[in-house]
Amino acid sequence: MIHEYLIQLLTIISIYAIAVTSLNLTMGFTGLINLGHMVFFGIGAYASALLTLNGVPWYFAMLIAGILASVLGIAIAAITARLKGDYLAMVTLGLVFIAIAVSRNWISLTRGALGLPGVPDIIRNNFYYMVLCMSIAGICIFIFYKLINSQTGRVFQAIRDDETAAAVLGKNTYFYKIISMAVSTFFAAIAGSLLVHHINFIDPTIFDLEFLVVIVTILVAGGLASIKGSVISVFALLALSEAMRFVLVSPALIGPVREMMFEVILILILLFKPKGIFGKVDV
Amino acid sequence: MPQTSILPQLIINGLIAGAIYALAASGFSLVYYVVKFLNFAQGAIITFSAYMFFLFFSLLHLSYILSGILSIMSSILLIIIVNVIVYKPLRKRKATNVVLMISSLALLIFSSSFVLAIFGSTTKIISSKNFNRTYDFGIFTITAIQTTIILSTLILFFILFLVLKKTKLGKAMRALADNKEAAQVVGINPERIYAYTFLIASVLGSIAGILIGLEQNLYPRMGVPLIVKGFISAVVGGVNSVPGAVIGGFFIGLAENLGIWFLPSGYKDVVSFAVLLLFLLIKPYGILGVKARDT
Q1: Is the pLDDT of residue A67 over 90?
Q2: Does B282 touch chain A (CB under 8 A)?
């Protein structure tokens, strides 16, 4: 029997792996600077929590959560498809603050800042839940591998490298950007859904920028446009972050020091190794 | 039907919020105009300066003029360090503006974690009797500090406008913003002008931090919502135009506060983002902005 602590850690690693690889699909492979990834993650978590609290079976709730996030992702991609770089980052970052404001103020649905406690477990046994999360992460990574090595995946990368050239070759770049966003947001919501059934609680802090910086750090450290890099980076950085728990004496400092660690790593990578460990393209 | 009697108070509140947003937006937009990237670390300057003022004024009991000067000087020192350690090497290796933006976002979140580790998560209040005196004009009330905010903001913007339009430095900044290569050809050193731009932006951010610290409370994440509002204001006003950012700030402040007429006050943020999305869809270059050559 694996130690309980290790089970928790592997569950979280699987969930982060889904979140990071799905962000890699838009940011790394398609070149869309999506800073609103955690919004889709959070929407998946909220949708799944609300549905299961009202008696919907978890697999059905997870599917609806994914579709809901995906629909929003498609809408955002459709609106922002003509914007590039800075402006896309601005709109998606704006989305984060809309999500915070709505989740805090739509009290009748989300109970505002109080959050939603008592989200039911999918499987009581933590070990089997870890196996479930790892399997879903495995399926998700397999789908991404297939997708990026397909013709569609090549168009994504062509859009990232030179959108005009891809358009000249007769590719409907607008359509492909929407596909990329739809797939990415679907899996972000699945990851959110898995997290909420693990910690059994959700509140508006899920949308906080700290969380986004953690995900972006893991992505950039692993390297953009490298699924292998993202997975290794999730293991390495989360293990490092857990190690902080044993190094620091004061428990009040663990939170801020862990956050600072991620931010410092992000800046150092951007400064000295912009391609990350396994990355193929510059940030 | 909402009451019309609260309208003057809402307009005054809108102007106060607008002045604060305009202060946050002006430094942000100045850096975008000259150095061409979204510098979210401007929010870190605001938080840092507010906490420095708290340290000097409330903890060390210095006079508020001295505390103000010391906070501004520490903010300048901070931006010089950030520029030398992070931004300059990134520019040297010709990093894209997205890389600079992500690193500035990391710096912003770093500042809030840092302040949290040093000062703790409890809300701090800078208390002073002089500033909380309230003037009642019948149709609206305003406190001394709020009057100070509006007046000093207007004076600052006038000085900023003069610097940009009349001085040699301002001309060099505009030349660099318009065409970097041509500016270099006529002997303008970009690194020097960038350093001055960050310096001016940090003074604006620092004053914003002090004024906000005096009017509201201090908490480690205070810079994040402020720079987001500053950024919305800058986009709405035209992110490539410093006067545009100022106008955008007042516009967003008024829109949010007049929105309370129809919506619960918690939806303030939604109002400003609705305005942002509307502008990005219909007029993506803002009220005064011009289309940038390279976006």
Answers
A1: yes
A2: no
